[in-house]
# Entry
Amino acid sequence: MSNIGIRHEDKYKLERRSPLVPADIINLVQQGIEISVEASEKRIFTDEEFENAGAKISETLDHCNVILGVKEMPIDYFQAGKVYVFFSHVIKGQPYNMPMLKSLMKSGSTLIDYEKIEDSNGRRLIFFGRYAGLAGMINTLWAVGKRYQTLGFENPFSQLKQAFQYSSLEEAKSEIGRVAEQIRKNGLPEEMEPLIIAISGDGNVSQGALEIAQLLNGVTITPLQLRSREYPSEGSVMIVNILPEHYLSHKEGDKFDLMDYITNPDQYESSIEELLPDINVFVNGIYWDDRYPKLIKKEWLVEQEKSNNLHLKVIGDITCDVHGSVECTEKSTEIEDPVFIYDPSADGYKMGFNGKGIAVMAVDILPSELPREASEHFSTALKPFMKSIADADFSVSFDQLDLPDEIKRAVIVYRGSLSNGYKYLADYLK
# Structure
């Protein structure tokens, strides 16, 4: 049986999550699994909590066969024959992580990626997505308050804080509820009404964002109303959920089919710009890669600004693909410095809330702003697979490797070589 190690997260100062939490480690230790935890002063759960759960606190994980993390690991971290389980962010061939992947392969070790732990229908089983949505929407509403305040409009949203500054998710929700009550009683400044908040997508990320947005008790409107620009006569805040079916159509006139679109995106065309003109706050929660159309293009932003018709003030890009579905996401941002102003006319940006343009919140480790709740949720999903991972013999051939299908499909690299489902990454490694 493998000795399982949990590493100290070192990619970001405020990365405080853990893939397994003390409450679940108690049960795993009872199953005979030996767990070591690398000492950490910043992790949301203390070393003492892990020790009380039966784990061993260690300054190094050199003695562990399987090492769990959350974010990417350092290029020089990997050791021959070991198994590493983390979010590698390599499956799109992300160039910034190809050196890490090369190093892992050169070491002769194995990579299991949480992102690819899926059921037989391709649905992800272990994820932080909902918490990215929750924290992302909290941050976006905080950014709304700051941006409009900078523009000279005092508003109730300015009372909100960034997600990580709350002691719990419930405290954040309670504060947003108080803001909603103030808006109900007093409305918003005339220049802000109606505040139209759009959220794209229908996955875990978007559902988390909608959960927070709905605390505002705003009026729900439809994409059809956005397209026709016909809105309810009353309502300080209006909320709309935009799905692919609302802005995509088949080029040959066939009925929109989501699975067909995912497989054959080139057969579809987008009309999303017909929905965008009146949106003040855009929250992006979709999965995206370069096969799919962009949602907000720089060219459109320039055109709107030139015609003095740019109503978009804040973007919460939870998806956070640089120059991706939101083309003006110039960089991913850090929790300590989460927002920049993008100026369409100059095609440039500067950090903070001051200046001409659109405030973009693009933190790429949003779940870490709700580290305790996010870790507990993640650990609950991961725990059922840990006995199989601990018992597996990673010295045999891949065909003989005895792992649940859900885990085996997530093995990107096995003993230094790309697995069959990931051979395409060789092109990116070049």
Observations:
- The two ends are 36 Å apart (CA to CA).
- Residues 3-127+372-429 form a domain with the Rossmann fold fold (CATH 3.40.50.720).
- The chain has a mean pLDDT of 96.
- The chain has two domains: 3-127+372-429, 129-369.
